[in-house]
């Protein structure tokens, strides 16, 4: 449908594969976000009319998909020149989780909180026979209450045939079956959700060292060989590897099943982690002592690490482990064991 509105479009605040996002104001809803889909120079009149009608129909579907953790869609407007469609949505002042991903590893408790929100929203879309197909940190927004909402609906579809939709989107979040020519499904959304959790747990610096998933995930064994920061508990790793299993039958079969799995995961101690090009450092507070761990690159595949604690009041500094000049696998194994002991 085409609506008449006094929508005022402001500055660009983001962009995605399918369009740019601007802030705006609307007589009814106040401050809003506006995603603008424009006609491309190569589209014929017939192609644009077809895409425009699809966007308008999608907007109607999304306006019915109401959930506290799905970004609210207020409506769609066609430009006066008929060469653009404006998707009008709630404005989220907290921005997107891409900013937090770029800042570094997030606390386990924050990741679990935000992913719980998003997974409940995703389950609501799935319950309405919609597949999102573009789950990533940049498409998760924080509203004025600090709750996470699933947004950027450029790829949401309800055109599902036997549970599958066409394979677009994701970029590095494409699961093996899609990379190998299959269709997207509820279970490919679960795979992308697992990749999103992994990224938020590790931050941009660590993630940048990995081979691009789009180049290797289709070859098999991707999740099995993902390198984890050593403070990530074993149970978290098991859940993520299940979410991203190559075999769709071995994955969690729904968003709700994934949610049930990680709702039980431990989030303590609250390790604050900083990843730099040549060093990873951690700190946390446990029982009136602050713990510190440093892991440094000292040569070609050679690493030093050290760990100690200091009292918050009176007392002595205590060393509780160190290694010098060990290879990556040894350092990773020793540090993983160390973190498992600190409770």
UniProtKB/TrEMBL annotation:
UniProt keyword Cell inner membrane present: no
Pfam families named among the record's database cross-references: Pkinase
Protein name: Serine/threonine protein kinase
GO molecular function, one term: protein serine/threonine kinase activity
Keyword Nucleotide-binding: yes
UniProt xrefs under PROSITE patterns: PROTEIN_KINASE_ATP (PS00107), PROTEIN_KINASE_DOM (PS50011), PROTEIN_KINASE_ST (PS00108)
Keywords carried by this UniProt record: ATP-binding, Kinase, Nucleotide-binding, Serine/threonine-protein kinase, Transferase
Positions of ATP binding: 35
Domain Protein kinase residues, every copy: 7-265
